[in-house]
Amino acid sequence: MQSHQSPRCRSPAAPRPHLPRASSGWARAGAEAMALWPLLNSGMLVRTGHTVLTWGITLVLFLHDTELRQWEEQGELFLPLTFLLLVLGSLLLYLAVSLMDPGYVTAQPQPQEEPKEEQTAMVPQAIPLRRCRYCLVLQPLRARHCRECRRCVRRYDHHCPWMENCVGERNHPLFVAYLALQLVVLLWGLYLAWSGLQFFQPWGLWLRSTGLLFTTFLLLSFFALVVSLLLASHLYLVARNTTTWEFISSHRIAYLRQRTSNPFDRGPTRNLAHFFCGWPSGPWETLWAEEEEEGSSQVV
């Protein structure tokens, strides 16, 4: 006789662990956000901070009793508009330098014009292309690997943390132009901030009325000092046709450590014309070979 067990007498099954779909969706979204966080934390935040700081300082100069505000109240709009255009121009140059390709070395060789026979004869075969141990591309002369960008950059100068980008062969002229324009804006802003400071007041009243403007004046003074030093140093390096990396690490660079002079220097005029106007000066290998040949002839 077969016995039938009542459904009420059966032992309850162990509950299965179950994760709601919402939690898996949140986990996926969190993983994607963590993957994007390094990008947001570096480039986007730096550029956003620069933009907010630029327009914030400009707004302070307009809101306080500076000559900028006095010109605006008197209906003389030429100088305020000129100042705004200079601020906008410096900001656009900053974004252009920070967002453009600084001259990354690609895996495939870039198309170039056919070299002339005399140039081909001057380039010795003893200048092999060095393979980068990080990204495994063949590095041309004066290129270097940037660990922050994880790419090799042609005519590498330095990695600028304020730009969150490398300064190299393609954006170095724009970088120097940005420094020059930014210095003009900073010096003008420094003068405007000074024109609004009023020192013949009680301490408490002065702090409430001009404390923010005085802080802006201190910031502009610091930035003007830094930018003027950067501009002077880069103009000096450009006039010598060298880079920040080559100037600091020449004793460790294979194509410079055996040299007593810079093989790429063709005089300040030609160096500046080539840098800013793009006047041809030949491949870096050709200039290096010419200097090598001149040095050998002098020894003989």
UniProtKB/TrEMBL annotation:
Its EC number is 2.3.1.225. One of its GO terms (biological process) is gephyrin clustering involved in postsynaptic density assembly. PROSITE patterns: DHHC. One of its GO terms (cellular component) is Golgi apparatus. The DHHC domain is required for palmitoyltransferase activity. It is an enzyme of class 2 (transferase). InterPro entries: Palmitoyltrfase_DHHC (IPR001594), PFA4/ZDH16/20/ERF2-like (IPR039859). Its main location: membrane. It comes from Rattus norvegicus. It is a multi-pass membrane protein. It catalyses: L-cysteinyl-[protein] + hexadecanoyl-CoA = S-hexadecanoyl-L-cysteinyl-[protein] + CoA. This is Palmitoyltransferase. Belongs to the DHHC palmitoyltransferase family. Pfam families: DHHC (PF01529). Residues 130-249 form the Palmitoyltransferase DHHC domain. Residues 1-13 have a biased composition (Low complexity). It comes from the Eukaryota. It is found in: Endomembrane system.
